Amino acid sequence: MTETKSPADRDEAPSADDDPKPGADVSFPYDRMTVEQFRRRFPRARWSDARKAWFVPGRTASRRIGRWLAELEAEADAHADAKGRDAFAFDPIDSSYLQLGKAGFRIRTPYSKTAVDELREVPFSRWDGDLKIWHVPFRSYEELRRRWPDIEAAARRNEPEERRRRAEERKGTALDLRSRLRSAERKRRRYPLPADDLPPFGRPVAISYGIVVFTEITGELADPAVVADFYPGGTDDRVWGYWRVPTLGELVRIWPGKTPPAEDATWWLPTIEELRPARRAARSREAKSRAKTL
């Protein structure tokens, strides 16, 4: 923050060596109105050129500053919400998937990974597991508006009627047969691994279609034709590794990998970007499992 001060305003904040007067420093981006609000709230505050901060004297200065900053944030949020509400009134989203609420928007769509990924990128969005809806505050309208075409298109693709229609169209086609074969192969819970580069047992690792825990490697050679049909990468010297889905505890405890995988990697330590959705999915699985036992 840079600001021209009068001689009285430029008093240096007392240091611990020069003056033991209690107090606290605070700095914030310069804005004339914010400075005026601050000076009215803290008339004894003085600017320190050395620290590039305001010094507020008093033993309770830190708490008082915290309350003031919280009020500023609430005021900024209220202004942003009002701005977002006005933007919606001027250029509304007309969709059966979106309803207007008191504090923002309520969004309910058929499940779609694309829609979920897009909504997670909207600032301050949150999922309500009880009502099965997404809440988005008015302040996030511009970002929601930008992402809405992709959200709505993904939702429409996943309407039950649309999914049934596509399934009927695929029946008996080569694409349908390949999809069934791929699903059957996935249910075997096996994965071709290079014999000279085996993953650790009992800990989560990432492979081409997610994060798994390998439990056994029998030494059985993988059929190169099967590998070529259903798995990416090379087909030479591969053995079958059998895996299970990791638990939430395993996904929480593991340290994420620091670097992205090599282009030709068969398995790798999952990065934090891969762990976050995997943890959410595991948390959801365990919640559903607990609900079934009640």
TrEMBL record:
Region ranges (Disordered): 1-29
- Which spans does this entry mark as compositional bias, Basic and acidic residues? 1-22
For this entry, the protein name equals: HARP domain-containing protein
> Native species of this protein?
Rhizobium phaseoli
